[in-house]
Amino acid sequence: MLVWHGTIVLCIQKLEEINVESSILTLRKMFEENRNEQNAIHMENYMKNHFKFFGIKSQKRREIEKHFFRETGILKEPFNQEFVMELWKLDEREFQYAALDYIEKSLKKLIKEDLRFIERLIMSKSWWDTVDVLGPKAVGAIASKYPEVIEETISGWAISDHIWLRRAAILFQLKYKENTNEELLYQYIRQNADSKEFFIQKAIGWALREYSKTNPDSVKKFMAHQKLAPLSFREGSKYLSV
Q: Which segments of the protein form a coiled coil according to its record (predicted)?
């Protein structure tokens, strides 16, 4: 059962009337009141103990967020980088998930200049759970509206020393379907095909598998001529007869 004190709900004001620090304090209280230590142990173990957790499962967390967003009116305001960054600094992983959900609900508001901010998030507290939202959703949305950022920024990520930037580059077209620039997709994959990194190999396979739903013949032909890690090949060929 979802729990929070009525006094907390009553004290929430519109974002324009309070500062970011106050709004995050309110969210913290909501999360604290729904803490589950047993769940936290399992969630921390699942994430290899890289992060602390309140132990709030996704469905309940989103119920809390829904109430928070509605009461603060933050989603009616321009995209707020400060709000996201303050959430990103906090220890419990649910705060980063709240930031990701806020970003996802704000995709139409993102502008070209937000890409460098998203880049900072990709490179901070990096793991698959954050990067796999930021890459296909935030970066994907910005690149769709401002395709010049591909050459200006994203192509540099594809050959970066930072594995999570490379993963984001490989995955940013994940939901583009028929709008996928397959030449670019294959270029990024070729540039990373020799990587020994699990998360790069997995990203390559995932990107190929997803694009195979749109253009199976193209993916099949590419995989027949491009040497891939066994993991990438296995993941990429899931829906193909190869």
A: none
What domains does the chain contain, in order, with CATH numbers?
24-109 (1.25.10.90)
- pLDDT tens sequence across 136-194: 999 999 999 999 999 999 999 999 999 999 999 999 999 999 999 999 999 999 999 99
pLDDT tens digits, 34-92 = 999 999 999 999 999 999 999 999 999 999 999 999 999 999 999 999 999 999 999 99
Question: How many whole angstroms separate alpha carbon 153 and alpha carbon 163?
Answer: 15
Distances 138 to 89, 192, 209 between C-alpha atoms, Å: 19, 22, 21
- Rounded to a whole number of angstroms, the distance between the first and last alpha carbons of the chain is 48
pLDDT at 242 over 80: no
* Side-chain half-sphere exposure of 79, counting CA atoms within 13 A: 22
Find out whether 172 and 179 touch, Cβ atoms under 8 Å.
Answer: no
What is the model's pLDDT at position 2?
A: 52
Query: Which residues are 66's β-sheet partners?
Result: none
Contacts of 27 (CB under 8 A, 6+ apart): 64, 65, 68, 87, 95, 98
Rounded to 5 degrees, φ, ψ at 92 are: -70, 135
Q: Which residues contact 186 (CB under 8 A, 6 or more apart)?
A: 222, 226
AA letter at 106: S
Burial letters for 138-148: b for 16+ Cβ neighbours within 10 Å, e otherwise? bbbbbbeebee
